[in-house]
UniProtKB/TrEMBL annotation:
Protein name: Holliday junction branch migration complex subunit RuvA
Function noted in UniProt: The RuvA-RuvB-RuvC complex processes Holliday junction (HJ) DNA during genetic recombination and DNA repair, while the RuvA-RuvB complex plays an important role in the rescue of blocked DNA replication forks via replication fork reversal (RFR). RuvA specifically binds to HJ cruciform DNA, conferring on it an open structure. The RuvB hexamer acts as an ATP-dependent pump, pulling dsDNA into and through the RuvAB complex. HJ branch migration allows RuvC to scan DNA until it finds its consensus sequence, where it cleaves and resolves the cruciform DNA.
Family affiliation: Belongs to the RuvA family.
Gene name linked to the record: ruvA
One GO cellular component, as annotated: cytoplasm
Compartment(s) of residence: Cytoplasm
Stretches assigned to the Helix-hairpin-helix DNA-binding motif class domain: 71-90, 106-125
Keywords of this entry: ATP-binding, Cytoplasm, DNA damage, DNA recombination, DNA repair, DNA-binding, Helicase, Hydrolase, Nucleotide-binding
SMART domains: HhH1
Keyword Nucleotide-binding tagged: yes
Stretches for region Domain III: 150-206
Native species: Paenibacillus beijingensis
InterPro entries: DNA_helicase_Holl-junc_RuvA_I, Hlx-hairpin-Hlx_DNA-bd_motif, NA-bd_OB-fold, RuvA, RuvA_2-like, RuvA_C, RuvA_C_sf
Amino acid sequence: MIDYVRGRVVHLESDSIVIDVRDIGYQVITPNPYAFAKNEDAVTVYTHYHVREDAALLFGFQTREEQALFRKLLEVSGIGPRVAVGILGGGRPEAVVAAIHREDLSFLTRLPGIGKKTAQRMILDLKDKLAMSAASIETMWEAEAVGQTAGPDRYPVWSEAREALAALGYSAAELDRAWEGMGGACEPGESVDALMKRALQQLFKG
Protein backbone atom coordinates (compact mmCIF):
# COMPACT_ATOMS: atom_id res chain seq x y z
CA MET A 1 0.00 0.00 0.00
CA ILE A 2 1.32 3.45 -0.94
CA ASP A 3 -0.01 5.67 1.83
CA TYR A 4 1.43 8.98 0.64
CA VAL A 5 3.98 10.51 -1.71
CA ARG A 6 5.96 13.71 -1.17
CA GLY A 7 7.58 15.75 -3.91
CA ARG A 8 7.17 18.65 -6.33
CA VAL A 9 4.13 18.98 -8.58
CA VAL A 10 5.51 19.37 -12.09
CA HIS A 11 2.40 19.01 -14.25
CA LEU A 12 -1.36 19.54 -14.00
CA GLU A 13 -4.13 17.89 -16.02
CA SER A 14 -7.90 18.29 -15.69
CA ASP A 15 -8.17 15.21 -13.46
CA SER A 16 -4.63 14.51 -12.25
CA ILE A 17 -1.22 15.82 -11.28
CA VAL A 18 2.29 14.57 -11.90
CA ILE A 19 4.47 14.70 -8.82
CA ASP A 20 8.24 14.34 -9.03
CA VAL A 21 9.59 12.09 -6.29
CA ARG A 22 13.36 11.70 -6.56
CA ASP A 23 13.33 12.08 -10.35
CA ILE A 24 10.40 9.70 -10.87
CA GLY A 25 7.13 11.25 -12.04
CA TYR A 26 4.01 9.72 -10.50
CA GLN A 27 0.64 10.44 -12.10
CA VAL A 28 -1.92 10.91 -9.33
CA ILE A 29 -5.66 11.18 -10.04
CA THR A 30 -7.15 13.73 -7.67
CA PRO A 31 -10.51 15.49 -7.09
CA ASN A 32 -9.00 18.95 -7.50
CA PRO A 33 -5.71 19.15 -9.39
CA TYR A 34 -5.71 22.96 -9.19
CA ALA A 35 -5.27 22.78 -5.43
CA PHE A 36 -1.78 21.47 -6.14
CA ALA A 37 -0.65 24.44 -8.23
CA LYS A 38 2.90 24.05 -9.50
CA ASN A 39 5.58 25.51 -7.23
CA GLU A 40 9.07 24.70 -6.06
CA ASP A 41 7.97 23.48 -2.63
CA ALA A 42 7.44 19.80 -1.90
CA VAL A 43 3.87 18.77 -1.15
CA THR A 44 2.48 15.71 0.58
CA VAL A 45 -0.28 13.84 -1.24
CA TYR A 46 -2.18 11.16 0.68
CA THR A 47 -2.81 8.29 -1.69
CA HIS A 48 -4.77 5.16 -2.43
CA TYR A 49 -3.21 2.56 -4.75
CA HIS A 50 -5.81 0.80 -6.87
CA VAL A 51 -4.91 -2.24 -8.96
CA ARG A 52 -7.15 -3.81 -11.58
CA GLU A 53 -6.53 -6.21 -14.44
CA ASP A 54 -5.65 -3.56 -17.02
CA ALA A 55 -4.12 -0.80 -14.90
CA ALA A 56 -2.52 0.26 -11.64
CA LEU A 57 -3.81 3.69 -10.60
CA LEU A 58 -2.77 6.09 -7.88
CA PHE A 59 -5.43 8.37 -6.38
CA GLY A 60 -4.37 11.31 -4.23
CA PHE A 61 -5.82 13.75 -1.72
CA GLN A 62 -4.81 16.85 0.21
CA THR A 63 -5.95 15.55 3.60
CA ARG A 64 -6.30 12.35 5.58
CA GLU A 65 -10.03 13.07 5.84
CA GLU A 66 -10.43 12.98 2.05
CA GLN A 67 -8.37 9.80 1.85
CA ALA A 68 -10.45 8.10 4.55
CA LEU A 69 -13.78 9.12 3.00
CA PHE A 70 -12.61 7.93 -0.42
CA ARG A 71 -11.85 4.50 1.01
CA LYS A 72 -15.22 4.35 2.77
CA LEU A 73 -17.00 5.26 -0.46
CA LEU A 74 -15.34 2.30 -2.19
CA GLU A 75 -17.17 0.01 0.25
CA VAL A 76 -20.50 1.03 -1.28
CA SER A 77 -21.79 -1.23 -4.04
CA GLY A 78 -21.78 0.60 -7.36
CA ILE A 79 -19.11 3.14 -6.40
CA GLY A 80 -15.72 2.63 -7.99
CA PRO A 81 -12.63 4.81 -7.58
CA ARG A 82 -13.51 7.18 -10.44
CA VAL A 83 -16.99 7.82 -9.05
CA ALA A 84 -15.55 8.26 -5.54
CA VAL A 85 -13.11 10.87 -6.84
CA GLY A 86 -16.01 12.62 -8.58
CA ILE A 87 -17.94 12.71 -5.31
CA LEU A 88 -15.02 14.35 -3.52
CA GLY A 89 -14.65 16.79 -6.40
CA GLY A 90 -18.34 17.65 -6.23
CA GLY A 91 -18.62 18.27 -2.50
CA ARG A 92 -16.40 18.94 0.49
CA PRO A 93 -15.87 15.82 2.67
CA GLU A 94 -17.68 17.36 5.63
CA ALA A 95 -20.64 18.31 3.40
CA VAL A 96 -20.87 14.77 1.97
CA VAL A 97 -20.69 13.22 5.45
CA ALA A 98 -23.31 15.63 6.78
CA ALA A 99 -25.63 14.81 3.86
CA ILE A 100 -25.28 11.08 4.57
CA HIS A 101 -26.10 11.63 8.25
CA ARG A 102 -29.12 13.79 7.30
CA GLU A 103 -30.18 11.23 4.67
CA ASP A 104 -30.25 14.14 2.23
CA LEU A 105 -30.99 12.45 -1.10
CA SER A 106 -31.34 15.80 -2.85
CA PHE A 107 -27.74 16.75 -2.05
CA LEU A 108 -26.28 13.31 -2.73
CA THR A 109 -27.96 12.91 -6.13
CA ARG A 110 -26.41 16.21 -7.26
CA LEU A 111 -22.96 14.65 -6.89
CA PRO A 112 -21.35 13.37 -10.13
CA GLY A 113 -22.29 9.80 -10.99
CA ILE A 114 -24.75 9.37 -8.12
CA GLY A 115 -28.35 8.38 -8.78
CA LYS A 116 -31.11 7.82 -6.26
CA LYS A 117 -30.39 4.11 -5.70
CA THR A 118 -26.68 4.70 -5.16
CA ALA A 119 -27.42 7.60 -2.81
CA GLN A 120 -29.72 5.33 -0.78
CA ARG A 121 -26.96 2.70 -0.61
CA MET A 122 -24.49 5.35 0.57
CA ILE A 123 -26.82 6.23 3.44
CA LEU A 124 -27.54 2.61 4.33
CA ASP A 125 -23.90 1.48 4.17
CA LEU A 126 -22.09 4.50 5.58
CA LYS A 127 -24.31 6.39 8.01
CA ASP A 128 -23.16 4.32 10.98
CA LYS A 129 -19.54 4.15 9.79
CA LEU A 130 -18.83 7.86 9.34
CA ALA A 131 -18.13 9.67 12.57
CA MET A 132 -19.58 13.16 12.85
CA SER A 133 -20.90 14.95 15.89
CA ALA A 134 -24.46 16.21 16.04
CA ALA A 135 -23.12 19.74 16.51
CA SER A 136 -21.01 19.50 13.35
CA ILE A 137 -23.97 18.25 11.34
CA GLU A 138 -26.18 21.06 12.63
CA THR A 139 -23.51 23.68 11.84
CA MET A 140 -23.07 22.36 8.31
CA TRP A 141 -26.85 22.27 7.76
CA GLU A 142 -27.22 25.86 8.94
CA ALA A 143 -24.37 27.06 6.72
CA GLU A 144 -25.97 25.49 3.66
CA ALA A 145 -29.46 26.66 4.60
CA VAL A 146 -28.44 30.34 4.64
CA GLY A 147 -26.74 29.98 1.28
CA GLN A 148 -23.36 31.10 2.62
CA THR A 149 -23.75 34.74 1.68
CA ALA A 150 -21.05 36.32 3.86
CA GLY A 151 -17.74 37.80 2.70
CA PRO A 152 -15.01 35.78 0.99
CA ASP A 153 -12.95 35.31 4.16
CA ARG A 154 -15.70 33.05 5.51
CA TYR A 155 -15.10 30.43 2.82
CA PRO A 156 -12.02 28.22 3.05
CA VAL A 157 -13.04 26.75 -0.31
CA TRP A 158 -12.73 30.19 -1.98
CA SER A 159 -9.40 30.80 -0.23
CA GLU A 160 -8.06 27.59 -1.78
CA ALA A 161 -9.49 28.41 -5.20
CA ARG A 162 -8.13 31.96 -5.02
CA GLU A 163 -4.65 30.73 -4.09
CA ALA A 164 -4.64 28.26 -6.99
CA LEU A 165 -5.81 30.93 -9.45
CA ALA A 166 -3.17 33.34 -8.19
CA ALA A 167 -0.55 30.65 -8.85
CA LEU A 168 -1.81 30.56 -12.45
CA GLY A 169 -0.97 34.26 -12.79
CA TYR A 170 -4.19 36.12 -11.97
CA SER A 171 -3.86 39.33 -9.96
CA ALA A 172 -5.62 40.10 -6.68
CA ALA A 173 -7.73 42.76 -8.41
CA GLU A 174 -8.84 40.29 -11.10
CA LEU A 175 -9.78 37.71 -8.48
CA ASP A 176 -11.73 40.29 -6.47
CA ARG A 177 -13.71 41.19 -9.60
CA ALA A 178 -14.35 37.50 -10.30
CA TRP A 179 -15.66 37.02 -6.74
CA GLU A 180 -18.01 39.97 -7.13
CA GLY A 181 -19.18 38.64 -10.50
CA MET A 182 -20.01 35.32 -8.82
CA GLY A 183 -22.33 37.12 -6.43
CA GLY A 184 -19.88 37.01 -3.52
CA ALA A 185 -21.04 33.56 -2.40
CA CYS A 186 -20.27 29.87 -2.73
CA GLU A 187 -22.96 27.40 -3.63
CA PRO A 188 -23.86 24.78 -0.96
CA GLY A 189 -21.30 21.95 -1.00
CA GLU A 190 -19.32 23.57 -3.83
CA SER A 191 -15.85 22.11 -4.39
CA VAL A 192 -12.65 24.05 -5.05
CA ASP A 193 -12.59 22.75 -8.62
CA ALA A 194 -16.17 23.81 -9.33
CA LEU A 195 -15.55 27.21 -7.76
CA MET A 196 -12.43 27.72 -9.88
CA LYS A 197 -14.39 26.93 -13.02
CA ARG A 198 -17.01 29.54 -12.10
CA ALA A 199 -14.29 32.07 -11.35
CA LEU A 200 -12.54 31.36 -14.66
CA GLN A 201 -15.79 32.00 -16.50
CA GLN A 202 -15.88 35.44 -14.90
CA LEU A 203 -12.21 36.06 -15.67
CA PHE A 204 -12.65 35.10 -19.31
CA LYS A 205 -15.39 37.69 -19.60
CA GLY A 206 -12.73 40.28 -18.93
